[in-house]
Amino acid sequence: MYPNSSVTVSQDYLFNLFGYAAAHPDKIILKEMDEVQTIKSEIFIPAMSRRDGEGRLVENVLFAGYRVAFGNQEMIIYTASPVARKLLHDVSVYASTFSEAVLVFDQGFWRPDHNLWMEVQKASWGEVILDEGFKHRIQADYRSFFKSEKTYKDLAVPWKRGLILIGPPGNGKTVSVKAIMKDVKVPALYVKSLHRLCADHLLSAIRAMFERARREAPCVLIMEDLDSLINDMNRSFFLNEVDGLEDNDGLLMIATTNHFDRLDPALSNRPSRFDRKYTFQDPSESERRQYAVWWQNKLKDNKDIIFPDSLLDKVARETEKFSFAYMKEAL
């Protein structure tokens, strides 16, 4: 098309002709060529935080031609990089939000999980058998956090918090986590696995995990079996993200572990990371009796099973040092 001209091509994604022209109107003048059919699109940019709104649409030039005056030179620039604006916006918002699903992080990616959401809907603090004072302390901790943004700001400290639920398996940590996920009025994000093929991918997975959590904040970030998620390869990077080299405002982290002794002291004892530890001991005799009553009620409509009140105390006495999981098997 231009036999007497030289052609220079750039594929650098940082080459922002329009940004430069807007910043330096005294150095460069652009004028669209009438004989070139311009093609533009709209790109959806998610909001940095959920509280900043849904995001915004930014105009992107797919193809256009410009006559350019730059210094004492004149040149022609073609730029190449048609969707309805409303459709693009609505589809992008739909793709970045989820209903009737929990966002689960697994193998380095976030995905919506409807089945986990269904399990969470079945959970209730009323169904969780724990010492009432212990249960209320956990509830007060996470509920007060989301009401205390102003207090944190007034004290000039980051509005973030970490809780660890500790104890042997089968004593109510997981069902308590599900009750929390159902109870909070903010998004609950669940981390299932951080394992990737190599160290670099592992670190990028941790970054992706926290980036999404920051975007959803205020939210709850659930990390079950923390001792298996964090290891020597990723510990330092994980701690940097927890400490908030970037803004972690509104982030409540809740972790569980069956092996608190395996956690690095930088995780288990360092202030401003996981400040509260709640130990789920084997159930007391009173709690074992409550669990037996729960099963009695669950089976009351089964005419083939007889579970009289006289068995309740017997079950409670004879299951000393049983976890709830062991009691379930025994019953």
TrEMBL record:
GO terms for cellular component: nucleus. SMART domains: AAA. It holds the Pfam family AAA. InterPro entries: AAA+_ATPase, AAA_ATPase_domain, ATPase_AAA_core, ATPase_AAA_CS, P-loop_NTPase. Coiled coil: none annotated. GO terms for biological process: ribosome biogenesis. It comes from the Eukaryota. Keywords: ATP-binding, Hydrolase, Nucleotide-binding. One of its GO terms (molecular function) is ATP hydrolysis activity. Belongs to the AAA ATPase family. This is p-loop containing nucleoside triphosphate hydrolase protein.
